[in-house]
């Protein structure tokens, strides 16, 4: 008991240290709300550690935290995303999407080769180091900037006026001809030094005497760029309007559409990139209110329930059959049979499923070669919906029956032999023994495991992803869906593979799947009876 107590103390200490580190990282990421929540949780663990009244909760807290971290938080995060428009077209926040638009610039295609020089201490004045930019334009004309400080540029965005070099180089100079002599007493920065200064250089704006604006385009080149959009101001001294931009090319107004998560131009066209926003029940409305989404969802749901039910029954029936056969005392070499029948479960699924994919190949697979040799047929396992579903059921039954067989073998050994002897004296046959003795005594303890198997088959993404990838696909649907797609693979395809990577819609479907699985599990437990309280 003392060892357990010290172990809990050490576990709580590690948890507190981990939470404090997480709190620090959240504060660095400007997530003050989450940081306060994590800090409160760390304080709760410390209070449990030293409070005698809450001593009993020390043994419960690790399990509660595990449930909260690995179940409640992911499910809550999934539910929250389901009420947004989060997708590949709406990845950024509103602030970040606005910054991307403000960083867009127009250019006439002119450029200058750039060299940066750092002035020595004698040349520099002020707190920060001073720099000079020497340039050679496309007409081979050398230029030199005024002295500037990158710190000031980064904070205030002060432009630097470009002036012609008062002592120009000989005719037709090149970038390499701008030497140390061009900026007396200065040190030219290497590419490595320029990379270190990139965060400040991105804010650098240079202006030439012809009123052109130049910005950094690469490490050693600037181009004539001018902003495409600016934030709207109602007047010279008015504050900026964060929901409206002005297109500097024609002066038109760009408006933020928070309902759709996009910026729209004067003609109502959406600009890229979009931004994340809350859309309420819109994703669920698309699933159940839009026929283009509801019809494939209904097909997938019906097939998923059928697949999970049939596969659970088939694996249980086949596993029980082999378990009964291996329990026959007169069978010789039972150990060898047991090892052979257990092998499908010992081989990892990510190895055996691709093997079956090759065996069922319509052109080169061994199964079709044998069927063609014997019967002259080559079934389209991946192009016909019925055959594809039969193949999926066959492969998953083969992979799942050893688990049921092992469980049934253990339960059969717990059945008293006296029951079978009494049944034999009464003249009962094997089928009577199966339905009157074996099944009733095996079904009750197997019921929770069958429910777990049903839930696992309901969300069997690995099988579909490695065997058929949902094929054959339906051609009359907008969303990507196939005849063998389960709800899990259907959701995965929407979220990551096809259809624009709509994470919010996939999360909404995942939430529905969670509710469906929970309800079906509850109904199955009620159907099988479950564990009942015995009253005395």
Description:
It is found in: Cell inner membrane; Cell membrane. Belongs to the binding-protein-dependent transport system permease family. MalFG subfamily. Part of the ABC transporter complex MalEFGK involved in maltose/maltodextrin import. Probably responsible for the translocation of the substrate across the membrane. Its main location: membrane. The chain has 536 residues and is an alpha+beta fold. It has helices at 2-28, 32-50, 61-81, 94-103, 150-156, 191-196, 198-201, 282-289, 291-326, 334-346, 349-359, 366-375, 385-413, 417-425, 430-458, 461-467, 487-497, 503-528; strands spanning 105-119, 131-137, 142-145, 160-164, 186-188, 205-207, 213-218, 221-227, 229-233, 240-247, 253-257, 262-264, 270-271. The chain has 3 domains: 2-59; 105-227, Periplasmic binding protein-like II (Beta Barrel), CATH 2.40.430; 288-528, MetI-like (MetI-like fold, Orthogonal Bundle), CATH 1.10.3720. It has a 7-stranded mixed barrel. Helix 9 runs parallel beside helix 13, helix 9 packs antiparallel against helix 15 (430-458) and helix 17 (487-497) packs antiparallel against helix 18.
